Amino acid sequence: MNAPKKPRSLLKRIAVILGGTAVVLLGLVALWIWNARRSFEAQLEPLREDGKPVSLKQIRPEDVPESENAAVVLAQRQTSLQEFDRRLAEATAQTNDPEEIEAAGAKLASEIEASDPELVPAIRELAARPVYQPGLDYTLPPAEFMQQVIERQSEVRTAARLLQGHGLMLLANGQPDQAAADAIAIVQWSDLIGGQPLLVNGLTSFAVRLTGLDLAERLLYQGGLSPEVRQRLVALVGDEQTLVSNFQRMLDTERAFGIDSYRQLPSATIGALSGDVGQYLKQVESFQSLAADPSGLGDSAEPSTGGSLSGLSWSALHQGIVALRRVQAKSRALSILSAWQSTDPANELSVESLSLSPPTTTDPFNGKPMKLVNRLDSLAVYSVGENLTDDGGDLSEGEDVGVAPGEDDTSSR
Fold this sequence. Notes:
The protein is mostly helical. The chain has 14 helices and three strands.
């Protein structure tokens, strides 16, 4: 008569078994998660041993006195800079023509100087300060940290546009030495923001630097610089050591950002992406090594892990090295032009005949000598660019990269 109790007893045993199994499974999952996290952190150990940052918190710079920090005073000039930016946007809203945009910038800079004569001298002075620390919060999650970086970099872009317009105005007014002060300040600003974290700041630094190099190009072709100012300008635009070291340090910060981005993922995802983590770390190291080389773009084939973080990062890193090479091409072209302008006109037209040595004479894209072409009683100097094709020094579409005289340039040597 006790038979009806058997099903209940059986169910109880099944429940006990299932409960025990669940405990075991939970334990295995916890162990797997622990191993996944441990494996992830283990891949970072070589970086730690080399003193490299492995988190955003570790890239936070030491505080500096306000007197040394260009960001502090620049922030106090934001109202004037934003007004310049707004008016320039209005003046150029209906055109994409570079000459019209430059003319609008020069005209507006003249108006700004009349209403606020201390603004440009202040921007120049700030560019010479040793550091630029805009007060970033390094405790934020990666996505929020990226957003604040993007928001803060606009002020340097605006300062560079103002200096460019001011320099063009001075050049048109026959004041090349004063215009050179603006070109020098732009390059100094590019170095300051180039020392900031993340690739997005590196790309902004390159864009700002090219603005300064464009102004330096005008100055060298039009002539009239005093020997002292010319020497300082040429030395600054030809300085690749700061350019490359900033880029390599910036990749350290980009890697720390990527590592923290991995940390934001669920543990199960991190475990599945263990190989991707290793691939990402190797990629960053590879691009850092490539940046130290005088030329080359590395492997142009995107890795097969296109949908992963390493795949997505490869494209950004590749564009970073391309941008670096474009800046190097322009810098080297200016150095070659300056050297040529100081030589005997009867000398052979070749980079070998100049008192320069590699890497200054080396095309940063293909590793061959930079190209020289007689043009408008002067000289065009160029690199073949990313497509590795010689387009005859046609710089209008950006395929070849370098310098060339304009119709209005008055000085050949």
